[in-house]
Design a protein that fits this description.
This protein is of the alpha+beta class. 35% of the residues lie in helices and 19% in strands. The protein has two domains: 9-63 and 257-323, no CATH class; 67-244, no CATH class. Strands 2, 3, 4, 7, 8, 11 and 12 form a seven-stranded antiparallel beta sheet that branches. Strands 1-13 form a two-stranded antiparallel ribbon.
Length: 341
């Protein structure tokens, strides 16, 4: 059974917010009609929490959107780190990537992506350059799969961006040095345990498979290109862990990767169709739900094929969401005053 990675967002005229670890809706901020905004926030939290509970299973991973996760690590001074990044970039230039950017190097406040405009060319690179440390969660949150983390900004970043191909996310590579200690407003000083130089990143290659972007050949070129660059990182002695949703990193089985992308696309389409049906009862309706898979010219075919592949656990969640009063903007079940959140 293919693994499923969620890649769905909600449209909202009041603005966008941050990502959730269990689900990826946009939270709501501001707006003229605060009651409507509060209802929309309630709906998004309900969808997120319901999915978090269903998706949190230590034995299986249900994630939509095939992605490669990777870690790099090195020791030594900044000259050594810079040389390693330069060698990795040269290897990227030798691959059939659509674009390979110049090496960017930032220090101190220059590493804070929050200070960058949305259209800053280095903003996504800086976002991916950051790390995080885990914060405590309550037992009930832990059962729902909720994770709380504190962002840790680099002290020094040396990195470059690549664009493997049309429809694929950028694949960023580099090395960063982090502070040994950070402050939390409630928990005080916290040790980061981040030593030496490191990099934690990911690249969603899934939507390179869109027929409008070149279909399967384009996806394979992008996915295998990222894997080839990770092979180079391994030869340089800086590769840490790799997680490949297509299992190609471990198996090097092209047939298996091809089957995986087909099954995942079908399941994403089926889940999106079900979520749109459920959200059709909510303010904003099905138009409030977006996902790149909806842009595939064969979306309806994929949706139908995915019905037989969608895990029963997700089917149960979709049914519950469709029947939910909270999804329609009703009162919170824990409240007795009849008011919405």
């Amino acid at each position: 059974m293919a693994k499923v990675r969620l890649a769905i967002s909600f449209k909202d005229g009041h603005g966008a917010g941050s990502h959730s670890h269990a689900f990826d809706p946009h939270t709501v901020s501001g707006g003229k009609d605060m009651q409507r905004t509060s209802r929309r926030r309630c709906q998004r939290h309900f969808v997120r929490d319901a999915l978090a509970g269903a998706l949190h299973d230590q034995r299986q991973r249900y994630n939509m959107g095939l992605t490669i996760h990777y870690q790099l690590a090195a020791t030594g001074g900044e000259a050594h780190a810079r040389n390693l990044v330069q060698q990795l970039r040269q290897a990227a230039l030798d691959l059939p990537f659509q674009h390979v950017g110049e090496i960017a190097e930032f220090r101190g406040d220059q590493c804070d992506w929050n200070q960058r405009a949305n259209d800053d060319p280095h903003r996504w690179l800086l976002i991916q350059a950051g790390s995080h440390i885990a914060l405590p969660v309550s037992p009930s949150e832990k059962r729902r799969g909720v994770r709380r983390e504190l962002d840790v900004l680099p002290l020094h970043m040396i990195a470059f961006e690549t664009q493997p191909g049309h429809g694929c996310e950028p694949a960023n590579f580099g090395l960063c040095r982090f502070p040994g200690e950070v402050s939390h407003p409630q928990l005080g000083k916290l040790r980061t345990k981040l030593k030496g130089w490191s990099w934690h990143s990911f690249c969603k290659t899934h939507y390179a498979s869109n027929p409008r972007c070149g279909g399967l050949p384009n996806f394979l070129r992008c996915h295998l290109g990222v894997v080839a660059l990770l092979d180079e990182a391994q030869s340089l002695g800086i590769l840490g862990r790799v997680g490949d949703d297509g299992d190609f990193w471990d198996t090097r089985n092209l047939e298996r990767l091809t089957e995986e992308i087909g099954e995942q696309s079908a399941m994403v389409a089926a889940f999106l169709g079900g979520l749109k049906d459920a959200m059709g009862h909510a303010p904003g309706g099905a138009g409030a739900v977006e996902a790149p898979i909806a842009g595939y010219p064969n979306f309806e075919h994929l949706e139908a094929e995915g019905q037989r592949l969608l895990p029963e656990q997700l089917k149960t969640v979709l049914k519950a969401l469709e029947q939910s009063n909270r999804l329609r903007g009703g009162a919170h079940p824990d409240r007795t005053d009849g008011k919405s959140e």
